[in-house]
Structures are given as structure tokens and as C-alpha cells.
Amino acid sequence: MSTLAQVRLVILQYAGDFREAYNLLAESGKQEYFSHQYTINSSIEIGRQIDEVIHFCCKTSSEYSELLEPGLRAVGGNLDPYKEPRRLLKLLEEQKPTHLVVHFPLVAAFKWAKQNNVKVIGLFADSFQGSGLSAKLRNFRLSSTLNNEAVHLVANHGLSACHSLKNIGVKPSKVIPWDFPYEITPKDFAPKKLGKAAIDNKNIVYVGRIVQTKGVNDALNALVELKQSGITPNLTLIGKGDLDWFKAEINRLGLNDQVTLVGGLSHDQVLTKMRWADIVLVPSRHAYPEGLPLTIYEALTVRTPLIVSDHPMFLGKFELGRDVLMFPEKDVAALARCIETLLTNAELYQTLSLNSADAWARLQLPVKWHQLIDQWISDTPDSRRWLFKHSLERCSYQQQQLSSSRLQPILTSS
After folding, report:
1. What pTM was estimated for this model as a whole?
2. InterPro entries recorded for this chain (predicted)?
3. Cα separation of 119 and 159, whole Å?
């Protein structure tokens, strides 16, 4: 990307705190989430070639605007963008952007950009589904907004998430699948075998938002189901969210001796815990707007066998019983059977770990976060051709869906 001094790029995020992530990395060299260091370094590089990159995070604990270094600014809104759109748009206007990247599906932000002649793209990590009337109306409003010529492109994390945009009516010529670059890969870890320790000493790890729609309740109730059969593996819950509510729920279910609620950890600690664990669990309910969670990539990276729900964004990604085990969302009994099977079947366990590298490789995509922004800002004939070449309409790397006939009996409802 050539130097574009008059470009002021605002990257609008729903949650997180860019200033906090920047300071943590500068002071300790650590990152809370895998993508923080990459995003920060990419933003610094982009900021050297334009007037300023501004990371505007809505749901911060305070309102602030701070220049982190030349060309890179962090803004905290301390607001809910869906409940306080006028306040958000006022703060957004104060940044005087020429270009706007919207990281979540806020229609008001796209309309504001159009009204103020600000160039805008969507760069999501969400799925878009729902069959109810309210969901259909919401998705129609969103797709109509995104299809407007004022929105140059709409990227989404992973192919399935991109297809969900297409399914709600967004033009596939505008939709681009994207991913992060990964420095740590499955080649850095040896495949695992099921340890000889008793099943009661086995360890399950969950990493993500500690909320009900991520299926954390289902994981707890699966432990209750197993406990009735005398099987008591341990569960470590890592992440932020409704911690007080879940502490009470763990106590109510009598799982204090089995469940550890640790809150947030740095990314290197998360990888260590996932490698240490016997199972990584991703029990997301369909209601949660998953793209393709990084927890899945990371579990495959460290070669720890995965149990996942049948969330629409996970379907067709894996050969079940070879790459992962899968259970129907909310089906506590099926989840319990998956856990018991994986912790008692050494051959199956080794198979999942051995095949994790191939499963990880199939998820990789060529377009990265910084490339999308670079090419879009450049806005040359070559960059426009590059973006269109990687659109959902044109991309040649779309993966074939794996046959649902490969579902194993242990993965279905009883």
C-alpha cells in the first residue's frame, strides 16, 4: 500500500479494549487473545502509511481518546452501540474518518458512513441465521444495507459465516472470506495419546465467553449426568462473562470439586491449558452467532481432541469420529456420551489427535485481515481485482462439505 497521507481509518469494534491490549503487549510482551499482537502490529504498519488508524472500541469501562504512538490512536466509547446509537455516531463524527471498518453488524454505522460520504466496509466474525419473524426482518434490513453500493465489501471469518451472509441475501460478489495468519501450527506439537490416569482424573477445558448461549450450562449438566454413573472428570472454564451466576450454578449442581472457573488468561496460558487438557470442549448453542471460534483452531493446533456442538457454522468442516466428536446442541446426554467415549476409547482418542493437523489445514484461508484493509484503502485497479478474485462468487478455494452420512451413532441423540 502506497503512502496515503489524507486517509483517516476508524476501525469500529463492539467489545474489547484496544488500549488495554496495546499496553499489555508493550509492558509484558503478552496478549490476552491470539489475534491481539498481529492486529496491533498490522495497525502500526498501516498507520505509518496513512494519517491515522483509530481503533474505536464501544464497550470499554471508560470514555477516552489516546494517541498510542504516531499514526495509531485508541478511542473508548463506554457505551452500548445498539442502545446509544446517537452518542456513538457523535463520537464517531469527532474522529473525522475518511474510511470506516465496521467489525460488527451495526446498520446505523453503515448508514452514517453513507450519509457522510465516508468509505465503509464490514469486516465480521459472525454468523447470520434465525427463522423467526424478528430474525428475518433484522437480516433483511442488514442485507439491504450491505448490498448498497456505499458499502464496498463485506468480509466474514470463515467460509460458513460467509455463506450465512449470502443466505440472508448479501451479494456473493461483495462477500470475502478472511482469516488470521497463524505462527504456531500443529507441526509444533506431537500427537497425543490417552493417558493411563483414571477417567476421574481426566481434564476438560472450555475457552470462551462464560455465558449460557455458548453452552456452558450444557457442559455443567453433562458433568451431572456423568456423575450419576460414577464418572467425575474435571472441567476448567476459561474466559470472561457471567462469572458470578456460574459460580452459583456450579455450587447449586454440587460440582465445586470438579469445576474450576478461572476467568481470563493470557493467550500463552490458554494454549498451555489446552495442550494439558485431555479434551477441549466447544458446546455453542445455535443461538450464539459464531463465525468459527479461534478455540477450534487452537485445539487442533495443540492436538488435543475436540468435542463440538452441531452449530451450523461447524457443520461440514470435519469428518466426525475422525477429526472431532459432535453432539446436538443442548443435548446434555449426548454430550455426556461423547465425553465418556473419548475418555475410554484410546484408539479413537489417538485418531482425533493424529488427524487434527489435516483438519486444521482444511480450515485455512488465503486472505488475511491486514490484506483486506490494505487492498481496500489502496483502491487501485489491481487492488479491486484482487478483492473481487477472492470474493465468495469467484474464490476457487471453497471447501467441499463433508458428507453428513459420516456421523457416528455416538454423535446423535438417543
Report:
1. 0.89
2. Glyco_trans_1
3. 25
The structural domains of the chain, with segments of one domain joined by +, span 4-180+366-389, 186-361
Q: How many helices (H) and strands (E) does the chain have?
A: 14, 14
CA-CA distance, 350 to 233, in Å (whole number)? 19
pLDDT tens, 378-396?
A: 999 999 999 999 999 987 6
- Judging by beta carbons within 10 Å of its beta carbon (0-12, 13-18, 19+), is residue 381 exposed, middle or buried? exposed
Q: Which residue has the cell 482469516?
A: 179
Query: Backbone phi, then psi, for 234, in 5-degree steps?
Result: -95, 150
CA distances from 55 to 85, 240, 262 (A): 18, 22, 28
> Considering only the top CATH level, what class is 4-180+366-389?
alpha beta
Altogether, the residues listed in the chain come to a count of: 414
- pLDDT tens-digit readout, 199-209: 878 999 999 99
Contacts for 115 with CB less than 8 Å, ≥ 6 apart: none
